[in-house]
Amino acid sequence: MAEVKAKPATGKLGILTPGLGAVATTFIAGCVAVKKGLGQPIGSFTQMGTIRLGKRTEIRKPNINQVVPLAQMDDLVFGGWDLFEDNVYEAATNAAVLDQRLLDQIKDELSAIKPMKAVFDKTYVKRLEGPNVKSAGTKMELAEQLMEDIKKFKADNNCERVVMVWCGSTEIYIEESDVHQTVASLEEGLRNNHPDIAPSMIYAYAAVKMGIPYANGAPNLSCDVPAMVELAAQTGTPIAGKDFKTGQTLMKTVLAPGLKARYLGIDGWFSTNILGNRDGAVLDDPDNFKTKEVSKLGVLEQILEPDLHPELYGDMYHKVRINYYPPRGDNKEGWDNIDIKGWLGYPMQIKVDFLCRDSILAAPLVLDLALLLDLAKRAEMKGIQEWLSFYLKSPQAAKGLYPQHDLFKQFEKLKNTVRHIGGEDIINHLGLDYYE
Ligand SMILES: NC(=O)c1ccc[n+]([C@@H]2O[C@H](COP(=O)([O-])OP(=O)(O)OC[C@H]3O[C@@H](n4cnc5c(N)ncnc54)[C@H](O)[C@@H]3O)[C@@H](O)[C@H]2O)c1
Fold this sequence. Notes:
The chain is 39% helix and 16% strand. The chain is α/β, with parallel strands linked by helices. A hairpin with a 5-residue loop joins β9 (333-341) and β10 (347-355). α1 packs across α4 and α11 packs parallel to α13 (286-304). Residues 18-24, 81-84, 95, 118-120, 125, 128, 130, 167-170, 199, 217-218, 243-244, 246-247, 277-279, 282, 358-359, 361-362 line the site of nicotinamide-adenine-dinucleotide.
């Protein structure tokens, strides 16, 4: 019998999201719909995935939750914070991602989830203003209020464990600075209202300080600074960031490894998007877009390794644009034009036109990140959970280690980590023994 390295998932798991916008409400409504048999959790590895165990001749391919103990859908409870007062039914209706007939069937469950008052500062998201905000205090006092919120939520909902996934807006671009280096400097900065500590970092601090696993679905620094890694080590907390890997970047990290594997060259990769949801409105501000741009631009460089292959990728021109276009709502359109070259340098082009639905792609990632971080906590894994890079556009990695962006390598790592926690042999795909 395999010896599972994680404690069982008993009792209820609370999933808290700072931000109850399009992604969070699509996630919550989706889980409620799945519980009631009104839909399928498509896109979720934890709900639909199987995993091969042992030798290929054994044909053992159980579901993930038969290999490791995951919290069950029926044991999930949802809550969150937002600067708007709409309950989840109202917010999901406004987001207009899901069909109103579906939302009406789960109206009672969704209306019962009301946002707690947000830690919000317009300096970091200029395009938003809302009434449901905690009154000013030092940043440390605000963090303490968040910790009280979490304790109350946990008690009110009889939760055994809680995880937090940031689903709030993308904040303005902030670079790592001195205040982010140690727990001591961060706590000092919280007490002195240091401007480099954005609201998302205050939520992350509150969670990690309490030992609550934290994932960051946006490209803000949040838990991706040395101080937060140090705090996570101190409190035994798993963390993962940043920025959900959903539409265009998902495609990019699928295509680029394929082109690279065949040593086809790339002269240029132009990516543009039109979208009209609130996220699009926030990203229309250049300071907020900059945070997203940095997150989106990083992926090709690591996958293609232009330093090793200057003749193939040395002069590649990579550009990413996001255009706010209200008629599209959440139904984003992402175009990619890729100028590639083959044998003797002959040019070719690839065009991708992805008519996607942003929140439909993001919702299963929130679920998987929450369940897998909860698993990590029960397996006593702390600090950066690099095996969750699969879900993230700009994955956090240990100091001195470059992040892995190739979706297939990320998926192998994810599956091997599940095997490892499940007490099973990891698989390296060598397979020579089949031919001995
Ligand atoms: N949908 C995707 O495919 C995708 C992919 C990657 C990243 N993201 C990121 O996920 C986040 C959520 O996306 P969305 O489409 O749901 O956006 P949204 O604008 O619909 O929702 C974000 C919500 O967060 C709230 N908010 C902002 N600051 C807050 C704070 N300090 N505290 C509490 N609430 C706060 C806003 O009021 C809003 O309701 C964004 O940062 C987005 O960039 C989304």
